[in-house]
Design goal:
CATH architecture of the largest domain: Sandwich
Order of helices and strands: HEEEEEEEEEEEEEEEEE
Strand content: 35-45%
Radius of gyration: 36 Å
CATH class of the largest domain: Mainly Beta
Largest sheet: 8 strands, antiparallel
Number of helices: 1
CATH superfamily of the largest domain: Galactose-binding domain-like
Shape: elongated
Number of strands: 17
Number of domains: 2
């Protein structure tokens, strides 16, 4: 009951009963006023998300705001409740593929009395795809390995695949030296395209001769080579263990080179304990294109 009706009722009661003329004034309990409606909510499209922001006017009267929308992905209405002190909301798990979302909002007072329902249209950024890898080691054989700079006195290239990290492969350090780049070449009998590498640096007391910059090169005839990736910034020290991210060459190849263009201490050779080549299968889940139920 509003204040004027309460006062009128009291006046009638006093006329009928002779109330004391010192009747105390009072405020009615429970009436909180009509909730202030928030204006100017804006949206920002983020990857797989919608970011809502707004300003709460000074002196605004409400306790909380309810925000909701019909989610075409879950086929349910999703509700969020934010306090008066909140000025943003991040809506997760949205899709650009659904176009405009209509997002409704309504303020409420402490008695859960709602103000005007309003809405805005908002779009999501593209939800990112997730990629799952499966790596399978390709078992290299000695006759598939070659190099342009084998050191004749030590470190034969076959040591790269014997499973022993205590021995090593060494490119030429003795005279006459061969300028970098020095490479490890793999010659396959079948095509490869998506791959990853793993290697162990030699266990040794000195700090020179570890590969520090490497070109990954492919070929289909063993004569014409194309660089598909340059690796740098990895650990390069005694006993270091390096595993690369997968590389998609973009096309099949039958020959591969691990082409070392720079080494620690700028030495004119490199050494390595073990080397492995992996074929990689990718399972790609794209939430923007996957078939929906």
């Amino acid at each position: 009951m509003k204040l004027r009706y309460i006062i009128a009722a009291l006046v009638v009661a006093c006329l009928g009963t002779g109330c004391d003329d010192k009747l105390e004034t009072f405020e009615p309990q429970g009436y909180m006023g009509y909730p202030t409606t928030i204006e100017g909510i804006t949206s920002e499209a983020l990857p797989g998300q919608i970011h809502l922001t707004w300003n709460v006017p000074e002196g605004a009267e409400f306790s909380y705001m309810k925000i909701w929308y019909d989610d075409p992905l879950s086929k349910q209405t999703v509700y969020n409740v934010v306090s008066k002190g909140t000025a943003e909301l991040l809506i997760d798990d949205t899709r650009a593929r659904f176009g405009e979302y209509e997002i409704f909002y309504q303020t409420f007072n402490a008695n859960n009395e709602g103000g005007e329902i309003k809405s805005i249209k908002a779009t999501s950024g593209i939800a990112p795809a997730t990629i799952t890898e499966k790596r399978t080691e390709y078992k290299l054989t000695e006759n598939q390995l070659s190099t342009n700079a084998q050191e004749p006195s030590e470190g034969p290239i076959k040591n790269l695949i014997n499973g022993d990290t205590n021995d090593f492969f060494h490119t030429r350090w003795s005279s006459p030296q061969i300028p970098l780049p020095h490479y490890i070449q793999l010659d396959f009998n079948e095509e490869h395209q998506i791959f990853a590498l793993e290697w162990w640096d030699r266990v040794v007391g000195n700090s020179d001769g570890f590969p520090s910059v490497v070109e990954l090169q492919i070929s289909n005839d063993g004569s014409n080579w194309e660089t598909v990736k340059v690796l740098s910034g990895f650990a390069a020290s005694s006993g270091a263990h390096i595993t690369t991210e997968y590389v998609d060459a973009g096309k099949p190849f039958t020959h591969f080179r691990f082409n070392v263009t720079s080494t620690t201490q700028n030495s004119s050779y490199f050494h390595m304990a073990e080397f492995k080549f992996y074929d990689v299968e990718l399972d790609i889940y794209d939430p923007e294109t996957v078939e929906l139920d």
